[in-house]
Amino acid sequence: MQIFSYQPPCIPWLDIRYIDRDIIVINKPSGLLSNPGIAEYTHDCALTRLQQRFKDCILVHRLDCATSGIMVFARNKKAESSLKTQFQNRQTQKTYIAEVDGILTQQSGVIELAIGADKLNPPKQMVSESGKAAITHFKVLQQKTHSTLVELKPVTGRTHQLRVHMLALGHIILGDDFYGDEKTLKAAKRLQLHAQELSFTHPYSGKTMHFKSAHSF
């Protein structure tokens, strides 16, 4: 099993993009856990940092530690229930940006490959016929000399879905310390995956809320 070295970034401590009585939206940096793990050293995370200032803050969804970008948190039980239902029922819209190894020959498409746990290499995931359905839309944004910038829109929200789907296409996300090789690890200092846009319905007003944070790679 891979040893997890956790050194969360401290600057900025929190990047809050929106706040009202019901929700808080942040731009999470790469290297910061969404919520604490079992080990004491994982206590410092996006959730606990928010709870230091806003005791009512509740986790609604997660981004991988290495993934940066937009996250929404609830501030009361009704907002929590509404937001979790939207994520579970695929009523949210999520757009990620990734830089992957190699040149994609197909400019756009849909990846429909079921994903399940890699029982021999936890906590890794893998494409598996017995896994859960997983769907990702992709579109090429820019072709570089040895890599490609792609837009990824997951329909489902499986663990490591975007990493596993791009691996299955033969285009590992640069900087991926779970599924990458020596070449792709050396190509970037961090995982080149960013949750750039998130849209959902506000739990109380019913208005469509849309947030965007440009990637920095």
Reconstruct the topology from this structure:
Layout: E1 16-19, E2 23-28, H1 46-53, E3 68-74, H2 77-88, E4 93-101, E5 108-112, E6 115-117, E7 125-127, E8 135-143, E9 147-154, H3 161-168, H4 182-186, E10 193-201, E11 208-212
Parallel strand pairs: 3-10
Antiparallel strand pairs: 1-2, 2-3, 4-9, 4-10, 5-8, 6-7, 8-9, 10-11
Descriptive overview:
The chain is globular. Strands 1, 2, 3, 4, 5, 8, 9, 10 and 11 form a 9-stranded mixed sheet that branches. By secondary structure, the chain is of the alpha+beta class. It contains 4 helices and 11 strands; from the N terminus they run ββαβαββββββααββ. The protein has a domain at 95-193: Pseudouridine synthase, CATH 3.30.2350.10.
Could you list the spans in which at least 5 consecutive residues all have pLDDT below 50?
A: none
| Extended strand count | 11
| Rg, Cα atoms, Å | 17 Å
Given the helix and strand composition, which structural class is it?
alpha+beta
Question: What would you say about this model in short?
Answer:
By secondary structure, this protein is α+β, with helices and mostly antiparallel strands. It has a domain at 95-193: Pseudouridine synthase (2-Layer Sandwich), CATH 3.30.2350.10. The chain has helices at residues 46-53, 77-88, 161-168, 182-186, and strands at residues 16-19, 23-28, 68-74, 93-101, 108-112, 115-117, 125-127, 135-143, 147-154, 193-201, 208-212.
